[in-house]
């Protein structure tokens, strides 16, 4: 699947950079076009892979290149002010080759959080291709302001894109590390999931390794639909004796000899176990699996470890678990890989406790800030009063 990606704000830019690195090391070519947008000059300069001519500094007359300081209203203003400039950077390269747009942003800050919905709305008006968001939720311990920003932006972003692919930093943070190191690891997790998903739709990259049932871009687009929130599950396992030649391939795919059937059974069991783990384990956004509207299963790995029976069985299991009938499934052979990976896309999910919690945190942060404001106004009044009395 070829995607025009826009990295909005610092987190968005860094993740876009990582998608470009993924493409250059794997030769996948999922990023059809890359534009980084930010109101902070230093963040744009810190990128490694996004071409310099595709980095757009917005809102210079408002924030003078220093960023939106965690104020989404400022991010929104900066975006509105320079929307034409963003648009022309996107237009420069967007061609009929593009299957979709993806706007990537951390929702807890100011620039990406406030600006992404403005850009999404614009792209929806101007292009026929679907516009998706990849929205990163802040960790709980980032505090009230970040969670308040994210709660608002999550709603606006979800309303302006065709589908909001959500990733919760909180679910993936590991204790102890510095913030920078932590983000590097979290960004790896993001790319592992979404990089693998989008490259599966890039069917041409398969060359001679024709998959038994291919997932192409239109299957991904149909799964994501035209409205909703998506959460993604992932699990993988190293396969012993992978890449040991074609003989094993026939056996695992259900050849006629008895050994062949035994090995095919192993492959089937591995696939079904991985799919359960992916669905019931850590999702990019924790949600009730049975609130899914549409799902997609993708199994990638060395060709000899993929088989149709395993994928069919796993697809039926997802149908039962999600209670939805629209479950697509396919495989993606990767001859140089020694890992089998299952990606489960849960689209149109509605029961998301984390979002409700974020909204609650937002209300609490709002009330607390009102309280502090009135306390400081009262304090100031008392001070002035005291000054007058002294005189
Ligand atoms: N996964 C991930 N999340 C990040 C990263 N950097 C920041 N974040 C998250 O994104 C949120 C927003 O931060 P930024 O992207 O720095 O904010 P911004 O959009 O540049 O906005 P301003 O800094 O206010 O101008 C933070 O609260 C974090 O939750 C990153 O590299 N990876």
TrEMBL record:
Alphabetical list of Gene3D superfamilies matching this protein: Tubulin/FtsZ, C-terminal domain (3.30.1330.20), Tubulin/FtsZ, GTPase domain (3.40.50.1440)
Domain Tubulin/FtsZ GTPase: 2-195
Statement: the UniProt record of this protein carries the keyword Transport: no
The keyword DNA-binding is annotated on this UniProt entry: no
Compartment(s) of residence: Cytoplasm
Compositional bias annotation for Basic and acidic residues: 366-376
Chief site of localization: cytoplasm
Binding site for GTP: 10-14, 110-112, 142, 169, 187
GO MF term (any one): GTPase activity
Disordered: annotated span: 366-391
InterPro entries: CetZ (IPR032907), CetZ_C (IPR048737), FtsZ/CetZ (IPR045061), Tubulin/FtsZ-like_C (IPR037103), Tubulin/FtsZ_GTPase_sf (IPR036525), Tubulin_CS (IPR017975), Tubulin_FtsZ_GTPase (IPR003008)
Alphabetized UniProt keyword annotations: Cell shape, Cytoplasm, GTP-binding, Nucleotide-binding
Pfam families per the UniProt record, alphabetical: CetZ_C (PF21011), Tubulin (PF00091)
Any one of the GO BP annotations: regulation of cell shape
One Gene Ontology term, aspect cellular component: cell division site
Reported function: Involved in cell shape control.
Similarity comment text for this entry: Belongs to the CetZ family.
Protein name, as recorded: Tubulin-like protein CetZ
Species per Swiss-Prot/TrEMBL record: Natronomonas aquatica
């Amino acid at each position: 699947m070829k995607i025009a990606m826009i990295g909005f704000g610092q987190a968005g830019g860094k993740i876009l950079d990582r998608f470009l690195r993924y493409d250059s090391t794997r030769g996948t070519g999922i990023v059809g076009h890359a534009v980084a947008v930010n109101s902070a000059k230093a963040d744009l300069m810190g990128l490694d892979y996004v071409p310099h001519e595709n980095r757009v500094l917005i809102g210079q007359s408002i924030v003078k290149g220093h960023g939106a300081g965690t104020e989404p209203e400022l991010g929104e203003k900066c975006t509105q002010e320079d929307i034409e400039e963003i648009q022309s950077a996107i237009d420069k390269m967007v061609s009929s080759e593009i299957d979709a747009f993806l706007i990537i942003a951390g929702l807890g800050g100011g620039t990406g959080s406030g600006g992404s919905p403005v850009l999404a709305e614009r792209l929806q008006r101007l292009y026929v291709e679907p516009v998706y968001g990849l929205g990163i939720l802040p960790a709980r311990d980032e505090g009230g302001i970040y969670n308040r920003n994210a709660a608002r932006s999550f709603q606006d972003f979800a309303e302006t894109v065709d589908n909001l692919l959500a990733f919760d930093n909180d679910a993936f943070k590991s204790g102890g590390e510095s913030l920078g190191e932590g983000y590097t690891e979290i960004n790896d997790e993001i790319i592992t999931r979404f990089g693998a998903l989008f490259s599966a739709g890039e069917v041409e990259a398969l060359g001679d390794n024709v998959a038994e049932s291919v997932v192409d871009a239109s299957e991904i687009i149909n799964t994501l639909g035209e409205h909703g929130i998506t959460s993604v599950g992932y699990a993988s396992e190293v396969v012993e004796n992978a890449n040991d030649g074609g003989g094993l391939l026939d056996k695992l795919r259900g050849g006629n000899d008895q050994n062949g059937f035994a090995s095919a059974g192993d492959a089937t069991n591995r696939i079904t176990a991985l799919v359960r783990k992916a669905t019931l384990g850590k999702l990019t956004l924790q949600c009730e699996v049975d609130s899914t509207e549409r799902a997609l299963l993708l199994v990638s790995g060395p060709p000899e470890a993929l088989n149709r029976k395993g994928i069919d069985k796993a697809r039926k299991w997802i149908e039962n678990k999600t209670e939805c009938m629209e479950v697509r499934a396919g495989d993606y052979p990767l001859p140089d890989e020694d890992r089998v990976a299952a990606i489960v896309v849960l689209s149109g999910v509605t029961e998301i406790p984390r979002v409700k919690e974020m909204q609650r945190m937002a209300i609490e942060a709002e009330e607390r800030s009102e309280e502090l404001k009135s306390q400081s106004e009262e304090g100031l009044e008392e001070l002035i009063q005291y000054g007058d009395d002294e005189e």
